[in-house]
Amino acid sequence: MSNIPAELRYATSHEWVRPEGDGVFTVGITEHAQDLLGDMVFVDLPDVGDDVAAGDDAAVAESVKAASDVYAPITGEVIAVNEDLEDSPELVNSDPYGDGWMFKVKAEDVSEVEGLLDAEGYAQNIEDE
Amino acid sequence: MTNKTVLHHKHIEAGAKMVDFFGWEMPINYGSQIEEHHAVRRDAGMFDVSHMTIVDVVGDDAKAYLQYLLANDVDKLQDKGKALYSGMMNEEGGVVDDLIVYFFEPTNYRLVVNSATKEKDLNWLNKQADGFSVTITERDEFAMIAVQGPNAKAKAAELFSEAQQEAVAGMKPFYGVQAEDLFIATTGYTGEAGYEIMVPNARAGEFWDALLKAGVAPCGLGARDTLRLEAGMNLYGQDMDETISPLAANMGWTISWEPTDRNFVGRSTLEQIKAEGSEKLVGLVMTEKGVLRHGQNVKVEGGTGVITSGTFSPTLGHSIALARVSNTVTDYAEVEMRKKWVTVKVVKPSFVRNGKSVL
């Protein structure tokens, strides 16, 4: 069974969201998603300052197997990106919820996060796939 | 029905992620296919290739039969144990399969053909044997393990008996020898030195474990694909098939046109295609971010084409591909990637040999 931390929120498209306070949320892809994709070889990140809307393709995770869009789970402004992924995309595989984070969004409306899945809901979502 | 090799439980033991490969449940990786790839380029890795089909061709007409069946000429094989790569064509000049043939005597040869095409191949071999005095026997009592990499031979040799060590001492690339219970060949699908070893099914598990103990890393189909692509080797069903001529698949060198009176299946069609000119298989190199993928459209000077195999090259750190394109191609091509046209370099279809870039 895949690791799904209880303190995070999830999108059905396999992104996770972690509240950092002050309306800032960190976004990455789940362990399940990285497992499906296999070894990551490139991660194409958004630019700091980009405005993203929930559901927009914000990044591209390219693995040995396929190129996969990463969608913004919430609406807001990108205020940081994980530059370590430039040289070490494999961090997404080895530590998807930690060093493999992708970008941080300053939410326009923090309540939007409440509409995302909790760990249990995401686990169910994987099972139903 | 899903087939399993005799090493299936060894893959599970090693934590492999298993996938369906043309009806065979095979390991795609044991964790990281990139690390497995590097193990083969830098040290030693092993692949279970027991799903491949071993066929012995024996009989008075064995040589004449293979001279008719194959586009390459087995008459080139004069040394005992020498191997030859060839395609077998249909009458339309398409590739039924590619294979390796080992020569023991003019009445005794061994073929290794692809697993995905097994039924078709056996039917084809039997059909073409009409009128020849040959016996065609599948040898499924053997498992096959490919041990590849700069340290592969030394590590595998730790498992050999004295007689086996003697049998392989000084053996050049592309030879095979039966030594006691093992058939040991200096062939492979990675662009590295190493062996492909046929081992009786009953001993395969023990042999695999001993290789693990000797420090040989288990590698899955994922690494096998990136390694062969870096080496510029074709994958049947992807880079060529029954509708593609060997001339459009970088296999022109495997067609023996001389002597001109040797008739082989597909010869007259291939002569015609050669005279008219055909598409060709080239290598593509993209150093920017992104990965070239199978099926992407290609534009070249004076024509178009398609990527037949594309991947990220772990050795080079960027993407490479094989593409079948118009023969008017120049040094650059454009590839349609995620709705954008990207300019890439055109090279000979070979990228890495013996751990080093050949670009």
Report a brief summary of the structure.
With 129 residues, chain A is an alpha+beta fold.
Write a structural description:
The complex is a heterodimer of chains A (129) and B (359). With 129 residues, chain A is an alpha+beta fold. Chain A has one domain: RNA polymerase II/Efflux pump adaptor protein, barrel-sandwich hybrid domain (OB fold (Dihydrolipoamide Acetyltransferase, E2P), Beta Barrel). In chain A, 19% of the residues lie in helices and 35% in strands. Chain A is built from four helices and nine strands. In chain A, the strands form two sheets. In chain A, strands 1-2-3-9-8-5 form a six-stranded antiparallel beta sheet. In chain A, strands 4-6-7 form a three-stranded antiparallel beta sheet. Chain A is globular, with a radius of gyration of 13 Å. Chain A starts with 8 loop residues before the first strand and ends with a helix. With 359 residues, chain B is of the alpha+beta class. Helix content of chain B is 23%, strand content 34%. Chain B has nine helices and 21 strands. Chain B is globular. In chain B, 47% of the residues are buried. Classes of the chains: A alpha+beta (129), B alpha+beta (359). At the A-B interface, strand 4 of A face loops of B.
